[in-house]
Amino acid sequence: MTPKKRPRRETPTLTSVRARPAQQLVRVDPADEDRAVILGQLAELLVAHARIGQRIAFKGGAIMHLVDGSARLSRDLDGSVVAGRPVRRVWVEQALSTPAARRVVVSVPRIVNENPSSLVFPVVTCRSLSRRGQATLGVSFSINWDDPLLDPPMMATVELGSRAVQIPVLTARERAAEKVRTFLTRGQARDAYDLHHFGAHTLIATDRRRLPQLISRKLAGHVPDHWDLRARWDEQTDLAREAYERGEGLVLLRPRPPWNEVLHELQRFRTCLPRRAA
Amino acid sequence: MSIDILQKLGLVRLPTVDQAMAWLIEHGPVVADPPFPNWVLRQLVRTQRVARLRRGLYLVPRPDGTMLQLPAVAALVMPEGYLSFYGALTLYGLTDQDAAHWGMVTRARQRPLRYGPLTLEFVTWPARVRSAKTRQRTIDGVSVRLATPVQAFCDALEQPRLGASFPEMLRVLRTGLATRALTASALRAHARAVNSPALARRLGLLLELATTNVDQELAAIARRSHAWTSGDRLQERASDSRWRVRLSRSRDDLTRAATS
């Protein structure tokens, strides 16, 4: 049996080589760089709270950027409760009203969506770090406790400007398993990019061995039993390809990888899927 | 003795490229057709000291070394236009995602701008430039005319290429309704004023998915024509007969995707 050839990279043309530096000059809105640090500071503030700190671990796009070095920037901080028990709104409000928090957060957010298994703060107004005057930035923040974590969280070091802090995060393989579930239900270009990043840069061999089991457990009860998961995966891949090629919903610090490289990683994750959710 | 005096006395000669850079900063931050040979501009762009927005239009840092954000650049290029669509919705904090494609409504046609990974398109709607509901916001010291959330949301539904996917628009709508940045009555009033079946269909479907209420006024506008409307720009895989919209995924999938 001949081994499968890896897809070839596109050959750069003279025009594309010349155009690249100009296109990459101002890579993102500078506020987004601020936002990443602010999200890290918010995580630090929440971890410092006596009631929340012992229960929460972080995940999502912000953590991928801060911990895994993903090029995709995010505006929201996602947290999961380790034991699957609820977090009270008042605890978050306490965490965001300390003297240290006042240097980051302009005021305690008033708009809160309190759901049975999550707490969402859609607009948290924070002080901009690099801009002078009264400039502010909006970020969002959510905590969910719909299912307990499968792996114990790990401590990750996050660079916040000139200092480094340690915050609890979900293990990379558990985050990848959750991303697989999200891809099956959402199928956005950014999910495909994140899975590519997990597959190509973050997961190691031992993670991959554990991944099928984690995915099965993450899917149970969260997707309909009648779904043929691999057929569903292929449908979502088609949807994501269309959006990815147009760059929909993707703002990256680095040039986005060609679709065939993303597809290669998606196919590897597909092999970890069970036929149906248990 | 400062370098300027040494230069005036002819004791020091600064390289041409640096002189050009100094001139650009003095005349910036947005400079059209700078009077320099192409090789100088190419070198400045290649060394990432200035950004080429499009042919003949350059963005240079301000004297303090900072670069303007895209909304401020857009306002400097077309001061009478207004910034709208999904990009404006991100500025209101109605989504946790960033917009890669920004849109500005203008009187006259303009070529698009490219700013790092972001693009800015100009949509020619002369009548709407006058009538649109907007507010002024200062971004990086530049006064920017920004569509109100309702205006931006409806504009994005009218021009799906400058909006986001249907699940993402549904998420924006839910966040907007929860934070009261958007209200069903204001959206309905806007759609009635525009009186476009395509807008009524897309908005009617999203409002129904977000609130479970079928808006009869929007349904009446939506059923005025027999032709069907494409929901988003993705390949059509499902259809919704109530709103006469062709969709890339079913209603259930839309709702599921918007909540995940």
List the helices and strands and how they pair.
The complex is a heterodimer of chains A (278) and B (260).
Chain A: H1 14-24, H2 30-48, H3 50-53, E1 56-59, H4 61-66, E2 76-81, H5 89-95, H6 99-102, E3 113-115, E4 118-127, E5 136-144, E6 154-160, E7 163-169, H7 172-185, H8 189-202, H9 205-219, H10 229-245, H11 259-270
Chain B: H1 3-8, H2 16-27, E1 30-32, H3 38-46, E2 51-54, E3 57-59, H4 70-77, E4 82-84, H5 85-91, E5 101-106, E6 113-115, E7 118-124, H6 126-131, E8 134-139, E9 142-147, H7 149-158, H8 166-179, H9 184-194, H10 197-211, H11 216-222, E10 229-230, E11 238-240, E12 245-247, H12 251-259
Parallel strand pairs in B: 5-7, 10-12
Antiparallel strand pairs in B: 1-3, 2-3, 4-5, 6-7, 8-9, 11-12
Helix pairs in contact in B: 2-3, 5-7, 7-9, 8-10, 8-12, 9-10, 10-11
Task: Write up what this structure looks like.
The complex is a heterodimer of chains A (278) and B (260). By secondary structure, chain A is an alpha+beta fold. In chain A, 44% of the residues lie in helices and 17% in strands. Chain A has eleven helices and seven strands. Chain A is globular. Mean pLDDT of chain A is 83; it is low at 14-23. Chain B is of the alpha+beta class and 260 residues long. In chain B, 44% of the residues lie in helices and 19% in strands. Chain B has twelve helices and twelve strands. Chain B has helices at residues 3-8, 16-27, 38-46, 70-77, 85-91, 126-131, 149-158, 166-179, 184-194, 197-211, 216-222, 251-259, and strands spanning 30-32, 51-54, 57-59, 82-84, 101-106, 113-115, 118-124, 134-139, 142-147, 229-230, 238-240, 245-247. Chain B has a four-stranded mixed beta sheet. A three-stranded antiparallel beta sheet of chain B has the order 1-3-2, with helices on one face. In chain B, 50% of the residues are buried. The A-B interface holds A 18, 21-32, 73-76, 111, 113, 122-123, 131, 138-140, 181-182, 185-188, 190, 235, 238-239, 242-243, 246-252 and B 45-48, 50-52, 59, 66-67, 69-70, 90, 93-101, 114-118, 140, 164-165, 167-168, 175, 178-179, 233-235, 237, 248-249, 253, 256-257, 260.
